[in-house]
From TrEMBL, chains A, B:
InterPro entries documented for this protein: NUDIX_hydrolase-like_dom_sf, NUDIX_hydrolase_dom, WH-like_DNA-bd_sf, WH_DNA-bd_sf, WHD_NrtR
Pfam family, one: WHD_NrtR
Organism: Dyadobacter fermentans
Protein name according to UniProt: ADP-ribose pyrophosphatase YjhB (NUDIX family)
Listed Gene3D superfamilies: Nucleoside Triphosphate Pyrophosphohydrolase (3.90.79.10), Winged helix-like DNA-binding domain superfamily/Winged helix DNA-binding domain (1.10.10.10)
Domain of life: Bacteria
Domain Nudix hydrolase per the UniProt entry, residue ranges: 17-181
Amino acid sequence: MKSNMKSVESVSDKNYIEQVSVECVILGYHDKKLRVMVPKLAFKGDFWGLPGGFVYQDEDTDDAARRILQARTGIKDVYLEQFQVMGKANRNSRAFMDRMIEQNTELFNNPLAEGQRSRMDYDWFTRRFISIGYYALVDMNQVIPQKTDLDASIEWYPVDELPPMIMDHNQIVANALSTLRLTVDQKLNAFNLLPETFTMQEIQDVYEAIFDKRFAQNNFPKRILRLNVLDRLEKKYTGAANKAPYLYRFDKERYDRLLAEGDYPIADSPLPIST
Amino acid sequence: MKSNMKSVESVSDKNYIEQVSVECVILGYHDKKLRVMVPKLAFKGDFWGLPGGFVYQDEDTDDAARRILQARTGIKDVYLEQFQVMGKANRNSRAFMDRMIEQNTELFNNPLAEGQRSRMDYDWFTRRFISIGYYALVDMNQVIPQKTDLDASIEWYPVDELPPMIMDHNQIVANALSTLRLTVDQKLNAFNLLPETFTMQEIQDVYEAIFDKRFAQNNFPKRILRLNVLDRLEKKYTGAANKAPYLYRFDKERYDRLLAEGDYPIADSPLPIST
DNA sequence: TCAAAAGTGTTGCACCTACACCCATGG
DNA sequence: CCATGGGTGTAGGTGCAACACTTTTGA
């Protein structure tokens, strides 16, 4: 495992927790579609895989996810939720690694490669891993996908047009979406997909993208304003030949306060807004 | 770590995945209350802790949870859901272990104890652990709590009268309940808390226990029958001086079929029933 | 005949859907 | 003054909460 592996070489010495990994589903929104940031690996053979990594001994798993996200998104404060553990005994990267090595023999059969270390890294990587799935919600306007030196490319793919990914990564994305749909009414986290301020139509479009379903245009504002967590700001003059829409901002402090005061007992909050 | 530790001695040789544990919240229902099965440890000092354990290299995490559950409940087929990962870097049992050893010096300062192994086990146990939380839903009528040789007692506690447990275990129970409340309408798993057949009043009582909230008596049957997953059986003559209620059975096959056919897209299923 | 609990019907309210209509803006 | 899209109002339907009522059973 030469050159390209250099950046993660001696991975077995890195003071990681063994056999535990973190996988990140980075979700963004643009042009009425939810999108996932997916890197393509810098090897021959068209391998796509979710951004992932390992957990240092002295690091919260949340912080590990944040570190991995920052490398690809460049931003530090990311909305993050842990949503699932992949814990199957036969869950390992051996099939993928073998396919990958087979199609990149010139890299891996190099007699100059540090044979011992390669073997150790191969064994380390292909053990059974318990993987913790996180999803992140980011404002695509603030993020320029950053290639690491393991990536051939890194791009946003609409959730319904994902490339075939390695291992169980397509399934992981599907699970992340299910969880988002199930919990968005409790967590009110969809706003993280938009800029600081947004119009009513934009947030409605986001909800419609999340649920792949249209909502009534007159009720949506009523329902979402009833939550009492949006501030209405000045109007947004776009230069278009129509009425200027109002801008809104999600007041996270107010939401947290309502939660803390117990006025929002999760079981009977003034939700759902997504029915 | 003598005598009582014998049953888990040489834990470091057991081919477990390192620094990963599983904690189980075993939920039952009786007398209008949700209850949790909580063992009390067989040491001086009143230590309660959730049933937990470790994951073998060749074992699914789900199966590890099942194995741990079977030891305490005696039953093999248990409804199980993974709901959270505790991943804080400072999450370890050192504070608990030190308190426990302090109050049980006669066991741990015994010069006959195998000093080396004790030390190794102490170090193994008190490392930082990433813990996977599962909750189980069981029919209390089918379960007799089984003490393992680590338990002084094992009992059902109402969720609102739990003893103070070690580490973050009280918080884990709270999170399990939040998850149950959030997902019960999608998973329709509350039936696992009752026997095979049950009356309408019983399942309503279960929902009321889960949500700590009353539901309208006339609407509840309508809503839950609308789901089209309950079979109405013969009446149940109890000998009581009142009308005999019908018995119902949850038809899991029908539910699975509806899910598989896509008639129940999770996002807009004919739910919720718990509003 | 009565008490107890199961089960059903009625009324009012809240919210949702569908549709129509008004408003602000720039050309 | 018109086209465009934001924003709001109305009418009909559905479902839920509260309450009252009927039914079934054993004593």
